[in-house]
Amino acid sequence: MSVIRTRTVVHVRWMIRRDMPEVMAIEDSRRFPLGEDHILGYLRSREHIGMVAEHGDKVAGFMVYELRKYSIGIKDFVVHPACRRSGVGGQMIAKLIGKLSAHRRVTIDAAVRESELDFLLFLRSCGFLATGISCGHFSDTGEDAIRMEYEVEP
């Protein structure tokens, strides 16, 4: 018997302080969660932005990304386990792609643990390509990172 998933329509908006309990609950569902201090450290920086995907009054996913002069770097990207494979992540990526332009920011990149095959396949399905490997990138495990990149069409 196969599971039939319906598309969950979400509103992707800026993260606010009252989202943090739900964000951290989603983050803690990961195999290698970042701590709250780590996420807040990103958000205190002017270059980093946090966004949540909201379905009704619940947070279905969130992302933290870095705005650079010519690119956007995904730092954290997590969808609630109950909302995976329902279109939430795709809508979040679409929001990031909408921030690209042929004249300014032209790429989105992410360093993904080699063990996070689901996320690597998801990014590939969104048009990202593997562009390299960073050996020993993750200091907590010494795991390598696969560099994934999306480039806007000229």
Keywords:
seven-stranded mixed sheet, 7 strands, Aminopeptidase, alpha+beta
Summarize the structure.
This protein has 154 residues and is an alpha+beta fold. Helices cover 23% and strands 33% of the residues. It has a 7-stranded mixed beta sheet, with helices on both faces.
Task: Write the topology of this structure.
Elements: E1 11-14, H1 20-27, H2 36-44, E2 48-55, E3 58-67, E4 71-79, H3 88-97, E5 107-113, H4 117-125, E6 129-134, E7 145-151
Parallel strand pairs: 4-5
Antiparallel strand pairs: 1-2, 2-3, 3-4, 5-7, 6-7
CATH topology: Aminopeptidase
Number of domains: 1
Q: What's the mean pLDDT score?
A: 91
Largest β sheet strand count, sense and barrel closure: 7 strands, mixed
Kindly report how far apart the N and C termini lie. 44 Å
Query: Over the alpha carbons, how many angstroms does the gyration radius reach?
Result: 15 Å
- Strands side by side in the biggest sheet: 1-2-3-4-5-7-6
CATH architecture: 3-Layer(aba) Sandwich
Segments where pLDDT lies below 50 for 5+ residues?
Answer: none
Structural class: alpha+beta
What portion of residues belong to β-strands?
A: 25-35%
Quaternary state of the chains: single chain
* Strand tally: 7
Give the SSE order as H and E letters: EHHEEEHEHEE
